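Students often ask why we bother predicting the structure of a whole assembly rather than each chain alone. The short answer is interfaces. A chain on its own may look different once its partners are present, and contacts between molecules only exist in the joint model. In this exercise we take four input lines together and write out one structure for the complete complex. Read the inputs first and try to guess which parts will touch.
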Amino acid sequence: MLRFDCTKKGDRLEYENISERKLQILYSAVEDYIQFATPITSGSVHEKYIQDISPATLRNELSALEAMGYLKQLHTSSGRVPTTKAYRLYVNELMKSTKFGKKELETVRDLLSKRTAYLTDVISQVAGVISQATNYPAVVVLNGYDNLPIESIKIIPLIDKSALLLIGTKNGIVNGQFNLSSGVTEEVCVDASNLLTKKFYGKTIKYMRDNIQTELVDAKNEIDSFSGLYNNLIDCLSNLISGQSHIIKVGETKLLNNPEYTDLKDAKKVLDILEDDNELKQVFENGDENEISFTIGRENNSEDLKSCSVVKANYKIGGKQIASIGVIGPERMDYSNVAGALKVIVSELNKLNLLTKTNPEGDEQN
Amino acid sequence: MLRFDCTKKGDRLEYENISERKLQILYSAVEDYIQFATPITSGSVHEKYIQDISPATLRNELSALEAMGYLKQLHTSSGRVPTTKAYRLYVNELMKSTKFGKKELETVRDLLSKRTAYLTDVISQVAGVISQATNYPAVVVLNGYDNLPIESIKIIPLIDKSALLLIGTKNGIVNGQFNLSSGVTEEVCVDASNLLTKKFYGKTIKYMRDNIQTELVDAKNEIDSFSGLYNNLIDCLSNLISGQSHIIKVGETKLLNNPEYTDLKDAKKVLDILEDDNELKQVFENGDENEISFTIGRENNSEDLKSCSVVKANYKIGGKQIASIGVIGPERMDYSNVAGALKVIVSELNKLNLLTKTNPEGDEQN
DNA sequence: TGTTAGCACTCCATAACTTTGACTGCTAGC
DNA sequence: GCTAGCAGTCAAAGTTATGGAGTGCTAACA
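Now the answer. The structure tokens for the assembled complex follow.
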């Protein structure tokens, strides 16, 4: 069965003077290797994909593709496996952009429709959905809270002289906690909440951080009792904003389902990176600015990740990066399925975002 | 070096007619195997632990201990490894109850002192601390919210016609979300919050569930606008209470650090159970009602866990089970260290609990 | 009766070797 | 330019030796 349809001939030839037939063979080879993880042989390509070319001819073609750097043999008399160059060509030019079934789409929608209020809950939910849809470990890196647009601010006094800070954003509630000086009443908190919401509605959290000092000095003059809140609130805000670039991981052990990691030593290298939040953050800060970004095998900076690929979606709002959402897996990754899953999830997240966006305007007009 | 000091002779003899010398040998054997994971031999015991008994005599003793079922040989001419029976004796009678260093204690206190408001955050923090302190995968199963005592109830309207429900408990905030009918003002939410807090302060969440219908019927009569809240709030409460017995896992891959899981097939069996929340819940519902409960090797019900041990602490408030906190690891687990870590964490949790308990009374008296 | 030295026995772990089979590269013919 | 067929190659699996660690047993001793 020939799965390759020739639609982008012009683009392809930019890469190299590579015949259409070689591309067809390479496409079959990569897809087969992704699916079965066994080296490609002239026999298997003939049998499964391209019956009208004999194995002997395929041998010549495979040999040529090897000379061009798209395939490599593990040893003489073994079949061939794709190189990073082949995966790159496959990802850029050959693969169907989304091989993501309707059934999976339904599952994703179902899971995301159970909306949760807190941003961190949304993130871990998203990570879970991706890991389930792709069967690889999923990682979500929230790139700080700076770019999130504020919808409302609430300060809620708790019983033991502390208070919750809830910042409602279009994506979910961000929360912090701080201590109240004695004498701060529930009323003061309500007043402060209203004041802050009024001053910062529609602005980003970064804007709030940069301007809260001056804004609150004014407020302090207006409202006396506000002083019991002032310092601690600012502390809380700066803690909230500076430190917490949240990272969530789900399904690390799914890595072990792949035959390239039957040797624990190899698996350990990758799992150790998955354990180390700082390293992982760096990994997910790499890649280009496209909607979906692929870092394949040897393209990875880290030596221990040369056997891996990282696929991530850049989740943006108003052109500003909010989070990196992605998976990590063997170089022999099902790129098509992963890219499909990530696209669907980002698009569903954007829909949720629109949903919350329309309502407050309705409220405002009332 | 003889690490065993004889203090509980009377108790020990209840088990079996086993000489003090055999106990000393067995103690050395188990501790050595826990530390090095290599079979015990007459030579190594002589060299490392009991110099004044010759290897030949130790051979006789080890052979006798094998006949009694405390040791087993993997094959003739191999050393011996402890059986489940040996670990059970070790845990019940021989081990030092806490082998938990001051340094580790400081770490635990540090981590727990960064108090977070939300119960789910507290739980995952606790799981992280345990996994870090023991170097095994940690699991926390929150046994529903039923037994948590209520301190305050807040309903917070969000911008898009939905509302947050925050139930403050002595252990942390439990939160839910529900939709508001139109016309429900911020004032109504405040009134409802105050009313609910007044009615249910000090009662458990279970009590609230069982009595909210009747209590709120009265309130509906008092306050007209309350009807916009009524149904959805009850829905939210019952969802909150029934479904969510939270389970949190941290450090699953730490299992792979142990030599008994260098074969991925063996590791997979255990990791699969760690993936399956339902099965895991059952595992952690087993065990006795003691403060710390050990389920060792073959004592496990699940066939796939016969090579594992599960140690859990029952975290209770007022005698009522709140959560199971524990670790899962190879049968050759460092029981002493794990038990120490769990005890410390439960005791620190109880302290935090007391801390929040004193403050509201202060508030009440003001 | 309990302890101990010494020796024979056992059996795993490791390495060296052999066999098998899958696949390629090459050559010659179409 | 394509293809059949055959020789060559090499890993994977199976087989056979070798070494060494550890026990069990026996006989002597306190």
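Check your guess against this: Residues 102-144+245-351 of chain A form a domain with the Beta-Lactamase fold (CATH 3.30.450.40).
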